[in-house]
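look at this record:
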Amino acid sequence: MRRNFRCLSMPETPLLWRSSARKEALELLEHLWNTGDEDARARLSEVIAAGPPAHLGPQDASPEDRRRSIDRRIFDRVALLERDGRHPLTPELQALIAGIRASHPEWHLAAGEIARFGWWMEVGGVDDGGRHLGNLSALETADAIIDYLAQPRDDDRFGEAEDAWRRLVIDRPERAAPVLARLAARGADGLVGVWRATLWGVRDHAKDPAYLDPALQAILASPRVLFSETEFSRAVADLLEAGVQGAKTPPGDPYWQVFDLTLAAASGDPANGDDPGDGHWVSLAINRSLGHLATAFFNGLFAHRLKTGDGLPAPLLPRLQRLIGLGERTHRPSRVIAASRIPYLFAVDPTWTARTLLPLLDWDADPTEAAAAWQGFSWHPRIGQDLWDLIRQPFLAAFDGRLETFGASKTALAQILMLAGLDFGLGPDLGRAAIRAMSDEMRGDATWWLWNDLNRISGGEPDQPTPADARWRGQVQPWLAKAWPRDPQVKTPRVSENLALAATATSQAFPEAVDFLSAFLVASDGGLLLDRLTKGGHPDRHPAHSLRLLGLAVRLEVWTDRQELAALLARIVAADPALRDDAVYRRLDLFVRAAQG
């Protein structure tokens, strides 16, 4: 969640407002809005209300047109969330869209998927998208469409005509093939924008061979000089990535022929050599042509349905070596993507992966390369004992003053550390040193993972030991006892609540878990803990330890609604009336009664 939010709202080039990634940005916005909590929606609300940065708007438009462009971009995002309806708009967004509607009553959100795409309103201030769309729809031949798009227009400052054509291809993909065939026959001069718009339109249907195959044939028939145009090679890379997403069968020869041509061109695209500036290598990789090509390659590889130890297909190995381009700066985006697939590649071909990719994780060899590779690895971390044994040393080296190079990827590092301690034999001294090197936020991520690890195996009959009980007794408590620091600065509300939640995931082991954790707990807001106790059976089966956990881990002064606490206390004393004399019960009961007057 945090990584996605940062990607959406990065101050320099926020994905939320990028016209080139509008569909993807709006899908991510909806996902974050619907899966986040109220605080997350409040933060998103602030980002939307602030509007796009000035440098992403029309630079030579009038102040009125700039204001209109900003309002329309805000309107589209707020209206999309409003239409979704799973969570109400914040008061700030309600007031904002009401004001925009009062100024522009003619604006409406487009129906269905069309709302996630834009024409004029994303970049310009003049509504030419609809006019171009109508004109293009009326043209009957591919040459007429190409001529219309290729003609210079003084008033088309922001590519409204090409964007309207892209939108038309998305809605009517059968119109793309004749245009692509004619583009291939007519050569390259002045037509790169038409190629780009057409390929971007086909991208949305690229999983269908009926649309992908004609596009590949047209690209192969096109003049090779086109690949020297970065906008062309970038559009082709986008198409290739989309074409094999979720593929059930490996791509054929035409696909790989286009891939090889695009890979050679992308190697010379200077944008692939960019430094992210903010250290977010994954965000950069997924927005560069070599990152798209790497994703395309691995999607194509997944379609082979390789099993553990099968080895990488020999025909693909030379292509993979060219793709990752060891030692070449411009190929770093593809290496970041490759690093994110290390767990899969290690399972399929451990020898090649250990020889080729794992050295990228070595901090001593190249700190910048290692930071990028570790961020990629941390994007989708899955790890077993064999892989852990090989990356253990550079992994632990990350905790030696290098954590700030990870950005949001620190969450995955914290979780891997816990997994290594529980399952891979990480020694308590090394674990304790790494935990102390973490920030409170990272320790919160580590203990949050611990709770979820136990929670996924909780459940079962109340009178029977559960898998969570066995894991607590066999791995969790013994390792925490040896490795988790008792330092005062480690005992924070964030960590405390997560550890208390971990105890609630146990069943028969709950009393011993609470007794053990008492040395680690301090008072926290405790809202989620109260919810877990309320919905579970511990207050009825383990009333004394439920009460003890409340007393240790809950800070009363933050609560405004005390009815849930009152109901929980009633269950506890119903199960064990003697607890009415307990000091913790009396304190909590007094707190509840004070609110009742």
